[in-house]
Amino acid sequence: MRIGGFQKFSLSDFPGLPAAIVFTQGCNFRCPFCHNGGLIPDTPQDGLLIPEEYVLSFLCSRAGKLDGLVVTGGEPTLQKGLAAFLRNVREIGYRIKIDTNGSRPEVLEMLISEGLLDFVSMDVKAPPGAYDRLTGVRAPIGEIIRSIDILSRCGIEHEFRTTRVTDLLSDTDLDEVAWMIPDGATFRMQAFDPAMAFDRSLRRADAAGA
User: Structure pTM?
Assistant: First the structure.
């Protein structure tokens, strides 16, 4: 696991649970509105990664006080050691939430089938026709649709979320995104904070979406 950041406590990232957060290093998207731009490259700017052993040792020391671990990024499903890491976390007794862009449905399906996940948050960036613009790459739309389908049938808690970036997404775009979400699924619209946007042209106070 390539770990670029570690937050030891949060009450807001794992619904209903006090949790720690692991930020994996590396992402296959280049979303212009991303507020974690330092996690996009495979190697952090300072070249320093957090040892997996350090994180596991901390989690052991906090067992019974913390209940959950959130694995976010970057994009966690790109990590070759993700499943092995989550097995270790599970053995300590933690519930696990993962945040994903949905680009690797085969990994998502494997983790669910192994019982390694308790909650999944998937970002749905845009309607299909705007996905390349909102991710900065040629987006794998087929894989994203497959991930939505997997989550709709997985039987574990999950949510879909979209960041409302008014400079990049119209009201019509947002209506189309809502149509992509399965009936009955939790769908959350997130506000955009432009302060640390990956695309510096979006770093304006009036770029924030409500």
Answer: 0.94
